[in-house]
Amino acid sequence: MPRWSELQPLLRPRAAPGDRTERRLARVASIPDLRLLARRRAPRAVFDYTDGAAGEEISLRRSRAAFARVEFQPRVLQDVSSIDTSTTILGSAAALPLVFAPTGFTRLMHTEGEPAVARAAARAAIPYALSTMGTTSIERLAAEVPGVRRWFQLYLWRDRAASRDFVMRAKQAGYEALVLTVDTPVAGARLRDVRNGLTLPPSLSAKTFAEGALHPRWWWDLLTTEPLEFASLNRFDGTVAQLVGQMFDPTATVQDVGWLREAWTGPLVVKGVMTAADARAVVDAGADAVVVSNHGGRQLDRAPTPLEQLPRVVDAVGDRAEVYVDGGILSGGDVVAAVALGARAAMIGRAYLYGLMAGGERGVVRATEILTKEVAGTLALLGVPRLADVRAEHVLLRPGVD
After folding, report:
1. Neighbours of 365 (CB within 10 A)
2. Which pTM value belongs to this model?
3. Is 295 among the residues known to form the active site?
4. CATH of 27-397, one of 3.90.1640.10, 3.20.20.70, 3.40.50.300, 1.10.3720.10
């Protein structure tokens, strides 16, 4: 038997972080780990709203599968003692090629909500886009997190005067850029939400009451903090699909991009572009950047896969506009692959929302730390010390089968 004197040097217990949330987050090593923690922490309807997609969720699976097909082409014997992950986004410096995408009803995931996400973005020196369907007002976010690069995401409403009012409020509150989402003329068929009976605000049914018993901390937090405040409306009772059908304008055309260009003097980003032809059209209408996006697979199921469309869109717009991409991005390696294929930056939603559900602001910070480390590590192993030097030659998309 080994002697105590021989075992003692091997027994080095870790110093436990302060509270239970910190201990949980300290054990998280990847965004998928955060996802598993979020699934345990949030009620099923809330988790599924974030995690799910439209229809049979084919688009969502294809987006992830596209990144799984990426094969990096590393160079060896390169000096990677110092790694520079910085870039410029809309002409200003960013520490990472990353933007926190707009997400709706964020305080459902955790009542710290959008200000928590914005504070994490400010800490990471990257932009954050507040959604029209966010649960913090334009003015409140600006007051609470003045140091973050704030973008405002806009849906075109049937009431164009209300749309113009949002634009003016964002301008007066010092928002840097406007993000017009164009892939939501009607609501996608999000079957998880239908099956879970998700309403806004959440309603107490027998099913949600049972979920509350399994997640008492989440319900207590929701019921003992201030009511949900929407960025763009005072109150709504119903489903997400009913809200989209009531508010959003299905008659919007590319001419409305020109109308918005006249109303907004700052950078204009158009999100939801999936083809080269549409990219050229919105840039011709005045867009400064486009986001190759299928709305995270949450609108048209079987829509094109953003990563696969990215090179075509980049070729179509050339140097006339910046190109970003979203959909299926869950690692720093995914971010580097997107940049290699022509994106100026990647936009993420689910990745930071998993962190928010898992641990509030600290969870979002943890998600950002993971992605930062992975971006830097991927660049080092690629033999590329500067993000600016990543090229298409560094990646190969292997053939895939659906």
Report:
1. 21
2. 0.91
3. yes
4. 3.20.20.70
